[in-house]
């Protein structure tokens, strides 16, 4: 299966390796993040087993990618994001790389719920920690490397 | 950002006509909501039945809409799809909003009045 990026937005490069793996490169903007997420959904939807869903993966990846757009690169000069995905054994593993600013203190932000009464933001890392496993982060040679896995099955009672 | 709004009994029923409220459209969503709700009825019911994906930017925008309404206005939600409901539940924002299962429940008082 090939995943054709919108030709009007040539920033999104989508390279399919096999059915279980996917490599994407795109600019750190809201529009390209949306295209990348739709591309991931298209790539993996057909291979899902019974009861499996991409909803958790999409939520987690959206938050990770939005954080890069908002915090790693200046809004006026978005840089590239490289994303590698591998699905195996009911899980989706992701490695996300960018060359923007490092995380504060070179470590993963804590995932606490925002303390404000009616918060308009600050939910992102909470959702990532709540839904993803195996989170690791390092800043190496000017590159941020974030790895995580997400389940393809929603085990939480509705 | 497509929003369909109609006055329904004592309330403004606003339906989001798109599948995603994400960081690409969160600001536009907020602005459009301000336009349709301003000067409207005191009760605003936001129908998210067509929204299958809401990220934290979208969630923040929904909270922002609640805060930008006039002092006498209040925002309620209805028809959350499972993924959207999960984001509200995980972040405990389901405690901040009145959430109706469906439009029938949201406008139950109004239909009783008509009968």
TrEMBL record, chain A:
PANTHER family attached to this UniProt entry: ANTI-SIGMA-F FACTOR RSBW (PTHR35526:SF3), ANTI-SIGMA-F FACTOR RSBW-RELATED (PTHR35526)
CDD domains associated with the record: HATPase_RsbW-like
InterPro entries: Anti-sigma-factor_SerPK (IPR050267), HATPase_C_sf (IPR036890), HATPase_dom (IPR003594)
UniProt-listed Pfam families: HATPase_c_2
Keyword Secreted: no
SUPFAM superfamilies per the UniProt record, alphabetical: ATPase domain of HSP90 chaperone/DNA topoisomerase II/histidine kinase
This protein's UniProt keywords: Kinase, Serine/threonine-protein kinase, Transferase
Protein's UniProt name: Serine/threonine-protein kinase RsbW
Transmembrane segments: none
MF-aspect GO terms: protein serine/threonine kinase activity
Domain Histidine kinase/HSP90-like ATPase: 26-149
TrEMBL record, chain B:
GO-annotated molecular function: anti-sigma factor antagonist activity
CDD domains named among the record's database cross-references: STAS_anti-anti-sigma_factors
Cleaved signal peptide residues: none
SUPFAM superfamilies assigned to the protein according to its UniProt record, in alphabetical order: SpoIIaa-like
Limits of the STAS domain: 18-110
Pfam families: STAS (PF01740)
Family recorded in the similarity comment: Belongs to the anti-sigma-factor antagonist family.
Name of this chain's protein: Anti-sigma factor antagonist
Organism whose genome encodes this protein: Rhodovulum adriaticum
